[in-house]
## 1
Amino acid sequence: YSFIRTDQLDGETDWKLRIATPMTQSLEDISILISDKSQTVKIHSEPPCLNIQEFNGVFSWKSEVPLSVENMLWSGTVIATGEVIGCVIYTGTDTRMVLNTSKPRHKFGLVDKEINTFAKLLFLGSATLALVLVILKGVDGLWYRYFVRFLLLLSYMVPLSLRVNLDLGKLVYSWFIQQDKDIPGSVVRSSTIPEELGRIGYLLADKTGTLTQNVMVFKR
């Protein structure tokens, strides 16, 4: 048997027990499995999946023995005690660690979504107004040219510089957070959503002992 750590997979720091199959626990030399010509060792496993809490398989040698998660060492685990001799079942993109790895997504704040919505509405309004002006002028063979002209004249309705000013404001706001003497040691890891701190209604914290050393003080 051996103890392993899976904090790289599920974030749990407690050690977990892993044992060998009952058929191989009494073997003095693992080379017997290879040198035995009369019996072939076979392992039948389930297809690759995301679940790291379960495993179904069969170990065949002289007889069949079911395999469970207690017999598995997922990729990314660390052996804490003892030595382990095993057989590789999943490799590459079939490992649980790779399958549970998600692509990082770009974070959008509520202010960004609101500005995008307003910009779309303003563009739609300017396009509608440009079309109305073309109709009032009279639709002829070159009406689309006048539509583009009116659309360019009304383009000031869409605040293109607002996005740049907002990003600069977020950078300044992030700098002020890091320089705040009331919250020393603060690090802003994302400068795209610092204004979301003012919209927080509920704060849910997990692993408070790990993050706060069992001390958490709320200041209003």
## 2
Amino acid sequence: MTAKEFTLSLRLFFCPQSISKREFTMPGSSTTPPPFGSEDLQLPAELRGLLKEHMDDLRGKFLQRGWGGRVGFGKRPALIVIDLARYWLDPATNIGSNLDPVVEATCRVLEAARQAEIPIFFTTWDHDPAHPRTPHDSKLQWEIPPGTSAELFALDPRLQRRPTEKVIAKASASAFKGTNLHYMLAAVRADTLIVTGISTSHCVYATCRDATDSFHVIVPEECVGERCELLHSVNLMDIDVDLGDVIPADEVIGHLSDNP
């Protein structure tokens, strides 16, 4: 099989309805991997454009079925920054990867949020060796040397967290499960939750899922990420189709600047 035949066969697998007599050309914007994550968990280059085309097609079909409506901003937004701590940001840990672009984009939104004086919350992991093990604990082999959890789960200093910005220690993926986040959001009368942080397919998704019935969910696209390119892309589309609005960070910053 030639390289051209191989590419066409991949396209037939991912997008059978889109095969035509014209020669397939990989879109240039679809061949570049995201600027974050783990290199060994990136999509093969020959699949990236095909997957994007297939997901664009899926999005269109969901829109035709009435999914994917816009929730927009409410009147009282709050910002949550999920798990931007060393354990997830250090590629040397078994769960970490290079997520510097996500941190940097989140810092931009944080600056706008502080200028607008909206409530800001952070989360990190409530690591306690005394916690009873759950079935889910068998899914990941934690590598946390004794006495290091405070350092590993401390927020990245680039976030410049202020004393008035609440840190929520959570023991589950969702920032809502087992915490008083919903109570605190109600106390500040928030109707919109801007969700940033990591990981897209796990804690970000779970938080958006729990928030969507009570809050306008807004996700600045550049402010979320994770180690695996495929899981990031698929879950981000799912959030945008079903749970909230995934929009550019500049649009979020612009809204906060225009609505102090």
